[in-house]
From TrEMBL:
Pfam families recorded: Acyl_transf_3
UniProt xrefs under InterPro entries: Acyl_transf_3_dom (IPR002656), Acyltransferase_3 (IPR050879)
Annotated Acyltransferase domain residues: 4-307
Chain ranges passing through the membrane: 33-53, 74-98, 118-138, 150-168, 174-196, 203-225, 231-252, 264-284, 290-312
Record organism: Sinorhizobium medicae
Entry protein name: Acyltransferase
Superkingdom of the organism of origin: Bacteria
GO molecular function terms noted in the UniProt entry: acyltransferase activity
Source organism phylogeny: Bacteria, Pseudomonadati, Pseudomonadota, Alphaproteobacteria, Hyphomicrobiales
Length: 335
C-alpha cells in the first residue's frame, strides 16, 4: 500500500500532542488539549483499516493475527516493565492485582486498584481497549459482503452509544464500550470510503476544514475550555479530511523526520511516560526550572519512543511480515 504521508504526519502530530499533554501534567504546565491526539488516532485507525482491507483482502483470522502481531508484543513488554517496576518499588502509587494485570494484558476494561478508574496497568493502554473492540468488530464484518460492512459496523457502534445514553451502566466493560468516542472509528471508515472513490474535498475546502480544526483545538487550549470527544471528535474528523485534501492535490511530500515520527508513533505513545517520569523526578532533585523540565520531558519522551521503535517494534514487525510471506508461499506451494 502506497504511503499516505499526510496520514503519517498526523500520526506523528497526535503522538506528540499526547507527549506534550503528559509532560505538562508532570511539570505544572497546561496542555490538556493534547489528550485530543487520541481522537485523531481513532479517526486515522478507522481510515487505515478500511483502506488496507480494500487493497489487500484478508480473512477475519488473518486480520486479527496481523493486528495482534502489530499491537500486542510491544504493549505486553511495556506492561511487563510497569509490573516489574511496581514490584521493585519504583512506582509506589501503582497497586497490582492479578486480575487487573490479566485484564490489562488481554485488553479487557477493568477498574484499576490504584485509582478506581477504568485504566490498565499501563494507563495510556486504555485506548487499546477501544482499538481491540474495533478490530474484533472489523474482523467479524469481513464475513459480510463489502457493501454491508460499513452499515453493519456503523449500526452496531451507534446502537452501543445510544444504549450508553439511555441506560445506566456500572460495569467497566459497558461504561467503556458505550462511549461516543467509538464513533470516531466509524468516521474514519466513512472518510476512507470517500477517499477510495476519489471523492475528496477540493483544496480550498480542505484548507478551510484544516484551519477550522486547528483553530478549534487552539481555542480550547488557549482558553482552557472544557471538552470531550463530542467536541474533539468532529475537530479530528475535519483535520483528517483537510490533510487528505492536501494529499490528493499533491501538496504533501515525504519529509524524513515527520515520516519517522509517524512510523514510531505507536512506540512513542506507549513508552513516553517512562522517560517523562524519570525526567520529572531528576528535575525535582536538581531544581531544574519548569520550562527546561518541560522541554527535557518532551524530548526524552519522544526519543525513547523512537529508540523503542528502532530496537523493538520495527524488528518485530519485520519478523512478522517475513513469517506471513513465508506462510503465503508455503500455502501456494501446497496448492
Amino acid at each position: 500500500m502506497k504511503t499516505i504521508y499526510g496520514i503519517q504526519y498526523l500520526r506523528a502530530a497526535a503522538a506528540l500532542a499526547v507527549v506534550f499533554f503528559h509532560a505538562a501534567e508532570k511539570t505544572g504546565h497546561h496542555f490538556t488539549i493534547g489528550a485530543a491526539g487520541v481522537d485523531v488516532f481513532f479517526v486515522i485507525s478507522g481510515f487505515i483499516m478500511w483502506v488496507i482491507s480494500d487493497r489487500r483482502p484478508v480473512t477475519p483470522l488473518e486480520f486479527i493475527r496481523d493486528r495482534a502481531r502489530r499491537i500486542v508484543p510491544v504493549y505486553w513488554l511495556a506492561t511487563a516493565v510497569m509490573v516489574a517496576g511496581a514490584l521493585a518499588g519504583l512506582f509506589p502509587n501503582l497497586v497490582l492485582s492479578l486480575e487487573h494485570v490479566l485484564a490489562s494484558l488481554f485488553f479487557v476494561p477493568a477498574r484499576s486498584p490504584s485509582s478506581g478508574e477504568v485504566w490498565p496497568v499501563l494507563v495510556q493502554g486504555w485506548t487499546l481497549n477501544f482499538e481491540m473492540l474495533f478490530y474484533l468488530v472489523f474482523a467479524g464484518s469481513l464475513v459480510l459482503p463489502r457493501n454491508w460492512r460499513l452499515p453493519a459496523m456503523s449500526g452496531l457502534f451507534l446502537a452501543l452509544v445510544i444504549a450508553g445514553r439511555v441506560a445506566t451502566f456500572d460495569g467497566a466493560l459497558m461504561l467503556t464500550y458505550t462511549r461516543p468516542i467509538i464513533l470516531e472509528f466509524v468516521a474514519g471508515m466513512i472518510i476512507a470510503e470517500f477517499w477510495l472513490k476519489g471523492r475528496v474535498p477540493p483544496l480550498a475546502v480542505g484548507s478551510a476544514l484544516m484551519a477550522c480544526s486547528l483553530g478549534g483545538f487552539a481555542l480550547i487550549g488557549l482558553l482552557a475550555l472544557p471538552f470531550d470527544e463530542l467536541i474533539t471528535g468532529p475537530l479530528a474528523v475535519l483535520l483528517v479530511l483537510g490533510v487528505l485534501s492536501l494529499e490528493a492535490n499533491g501538496c504533501v511530500r515525504r519529509v524524513p523526520l515527520p515520516a519517522l515520527l509517524g512510523d514510531a508513533s505507536y512506540s512513542i505513545y506507549l513508552w513516553h511516560t517512562f522517560a517523562i517520569s524519570v525526567v520529572a523526578k531528576v528535575a525535582l532533585e536538581i531544581d531544574l526550572g519548569a520550562p527546561a523540565t518541560m522541554f527535557m520531558a518532551v524530548l526524552s519522551g519522544t526519543l525513547i519512543g523512537i529508540a523503542a521503535y528502532m530496537m523493538l517494534e520495527r524488528p518485530l514487525m519485520r519478523r512478522g511480515n517475513a513469517r506471513r510471506v513465508a506462510g503465503g508461499l508455503a500455502g501456494r506451494a501446497a496448492e
